[in-house]
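Progress report, Aim 2. The chain analyzed during this reporting quarter is listed below.
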Amino acid sequence: MCQRDGCSRVRVSGGAGDLGADVVGLLPDGRRFVVQCKRFSVTSKVGSPDMQRFLGTGRHVHGAQVLIFATSSLFTTPARNLGVAQSVVLIDRDRLGAWLSGRSALSFVGAVRR
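Predicted structure tokens for the chain:
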């Protein structure tokens, strides 16, 4: 989907030891991005500890300028508040569905400070 949206040098890593980088690449404007993906059931939510771990590696370890956290579920309020405060692009199940259906994730990224 990242390539479909015009991103380049997209690399999927994921799995144990990925240090919070399931997908990395360059946005069409050249900024480096990293995506952390969490596939949770509808009854489980991404919590603040998940967000904190991602924030600890996204910019500093992976050198990303844009952090994207995608989940098949929802974010807890503390996780959402932390992500918003740190300019993380939050893609919950509704936004993920829109992205899968063809809406560009770049519309979500557009609100992120450069």
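The longest strand covers residues 32-38. The chain has a mean pLDDT of 86. These observations will guide the mutagenesis work planned for the next reporting period.
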